[in-house]
Specification:
Elements lengths: L14 E4 L4 H9 L5 E4 L8 H12 L3 E3 L21 E5 L13 E4 L8 H10 L5 E6 L7 H10 L3 E3 L19 H4 L7 E5 L4 H9 L4 E5 L4 E3 L4 H14 L5 E7 L7 H13 L3 E7 L14 E4 L3 H7 L7 E2 L1 H8 L14
Parallel strand pairs: 1-5, 2-3, 2-4, 4-5, 6-7, 6-8, 8-9, 11-12, 11-13, 13-14
Antiparallel strand pairs: 9-10
Helix pairs in contact: 3-4, 7-10
């Protein structure tokens, strides 16, 4: 694909999108009038972050500071307190979230990966016995592979569906760790989902969000993994819910990050808990650390920030942690079945 700006759905004001670090991005930064740039990279790219910061300094001709806190998504960009003198941000590895406000002009470099032979990948999928009616979901790095892979699968007899999510997703077929509404929109039209990307993060989230088998295709290695055991995932979460049904004192966690702040939801949950005769205290944080919750006279927590904190990292915390739908299950306001993923809209 050509190295040019991309237009996601309803981009947030002052957001600019590029597929890779290339001449168009560098020229745009030079033309932006920036006096100081803050660079933020995900944990997986930290090793190369210093070389990139040096390149930006040389090519753009302005100071570049590197945000030491790695980003886990476009929901926790550098705040004004973290980089008070930076007037422009460059964020690697993520697409903009259209409904997240930005504190400064932000250049998103999605690190699009063109690798992967669509014909070979489609053959792997077809020969593995993936159901004929399949929905495609991809990480932002591999979205360019979705159209040719779709065509290759269709030629092998598959019916392929691609969903368009809600206002939090910039692209059709896109996976976001807190939002799989694109997949949910087509779940009744398919018998399985095929996630195109690397790692287990998105397949696990997608499996919790949709009641369909989720196959995982690594396009760089042409390796297909069989469906995630959704029943086991749901069972573990239900056991956690059941363990705190008698909890009397709750902590309601609220993030101050603009892209994760659900203060209104937290207040509603606090009121719901009190109406059921429970105590509920709201606790504010920016980046949550398990040590922040040690020694507190609370029985359990409900987390209104990124749902993956409770789902993926809950075992690291001193007391059980639920998502908002799970909290309503624990109060008896929602049934345990069907399991409801905490979609962040």
């Amino acid at each position: 694909m050509p190295d040019r700006p991309r237009e996601p759905r309803a981009p947030a004001p002052s957001s600019f999108v590029y597929p890779t670090v290339g001449p168009p991005l560098l020229e745009a930064l030079r033309s932006s009038g920036a006096k100081r740039v803050v660079l933020q990279v995900p944990a997986g790219l930290v090793r190369n972050a210093h070389d990139l910061a040096s390149r930006l300094r040389e090519e753009v001709g302005v100071p570049v500071v590197l945000a030491a806190r790695p980003c886990f998504g476009a929901c926790d960009l550098p705040s004004r307190d973290e980089a008070p003198r930076a007037d422009v941000a460059v964020v690697l590895g993520h697409a903009p979230i259209p409904n997240v406000p930005l504190v400064r002009p932000t250049f998103f470099v999605e690190m699009r990966e063109p690798g992967g032979d669509p014909e070979a990948l489609a053959t792997t999928v077809h020969e593995a016995g993936v159901p004929r009616r399949v929905g495609l979901v991809a990480s932002v790095q591999h979205l360019d592979l979705v159209p040719p892979l779709t065509e290759a699968l269709v030629r092998r007899g598959h019916e392929v569906r691609i969903g368009r999510g809600d206002r939090r997703l910039a692209y059709a077929a896109q996976a976001l760790g807190c939002n799989y509404t694109g997949a949910e929109a087509i779940a009744n039209e398919v018998d399985a989902f095929l996630f195109v990307g690397t790692g287990r993060f998105h397949p696990l989230g997608l499996a919790l969000a949709v009641e369909r088998p989720v196959w995982s295709l690594d396009p760089l290695q042409n390796v297909l993994e069989r469906p995630v055991d959704r029943a086991a995932l749901v069972r573990r979460r239900q056991l956690t819910v059941a363990s705190v049904r008698d909890a009397r004192r709750w902590g309601v966690l609220v993030s101050t990050f603009a892209g994760q702040n659900r203060g209104a939801v937290a207040l509603a949950l606090q009121e719901r808990a009190r109406a059921r005769g429970r105590e509920a205290e709201i606790l504010l944080f920016d980046r949550l650390d398990p040590r922040d919750l040690e020694g507190r006279a609370l029985d359990a927590y409900v987390n209104t920030a990124c749902p993956r904190i409770a789902l993926d990292d809950g075992a690291n915390y001193p007391k059980p942690m639920l998502t908002p739908p799970e909290f309503l299950m624990a109060l008896g306001d929602l049934p345990l079945e069907p399991y409801r993923f905490d979609t962040y809209h």
